Amino acid sequence: MHLREVHPGKADSRDLAKAERAAATSSALSARSLPVRSSRPAWVVPLVLIVVAISVVTAIVYLALPPPETDVTKMCVNHSNVGQHKHANLRILILGTTLSIPEGIGIEGDCMHPLHTHAADGVIHIEGPAGRTFTLGNFVTDIWGKPLNATCIMTYCADSTHDLVMTVDGAPSTEFGDLVLGNGMDIVIEYRLK
Ligand SMILES: [Zn+2]
Ligand SMILES: [Zn+2]
Q1: Which residues pair with 135 in a beta bridge?
Q2: How far is the CA of 22 from the centre of ligand 2 (A)?
Q3: For a designed S-S bond to 179, which of 42, 70, 127, 136 qualifies (C-beta 3.0 to 4.6 A apart)?
Q4: Which residues, chain by chain, have CB under 5 Å from ion ligand 1?
């Protein structure tokens, strides 16, 4: 009796017999289960590799992009490492006069925000991480600090005698601040008499 020889006097014979039966059963079980473990289905390894590969790619893409909720005013870019560089044209007409959009909007000290102007020519430079979308409101309101909505541009608000209208590439738009900026877009906001 194996247990009695190895551990003499540690348990009475009834317990030993039980223990030996249990040991025999468990070794029989593990002997039976061994071939099952070694004959793992052929697709398991490729599946694990695919899952790992997808996780790695997802992590890389996620790390390359700033979180979508990052406030545009908290982002700084430089011209050498942007994932997108687009331009949109903005013209603001107040009662027939083109309002000047200054140069240097969005450039504060050593932080250049993704939406900025380099000249007083109405060109909005859109420079930021690839895949990130920016709206007209991000530029006019968040960066430049001027109100823009369906009723008002700056202090000019539609009323009984004035309209506020917007066109994008010549077509009427009601998006105002929600307009997603695209490359080559021609945006005109006009405050005019009815
Ligand atoms: Zn540019
Ligand atoms: Zn720029």
Answers
A1: 180
A2: 77
A3: 136
A4: 125
CATH label, 72-193, candidates 2.170.130.30, 2.60.34.10, 2.40.50.100, 3.40.50.720: 2.170.130.30
- From the DSSP assignment, how many helices (H) and strands (E) are in the chain? 4, 11
pTM, to two decimals: 0.66
- CB contact at 8 A, 130 and 169: no
In the chain, residues under CATH classification 2.170.130.30 are 72-193
Tokens of 43: 């697709």
Quote the ligand 2 centre to 34 CA distance (angstroms).
65
The alpha carbon of 191 and the centre of ligand 2 are apart by a number of angstroms equal to 28
Give tens-digit pLDDT for 41-91. Answer: 888 888 888 888 888 776 666 555 555 567 888 899 988 878 999 999 999
- Cα(79) to centroid(ligand 2), Å: 6
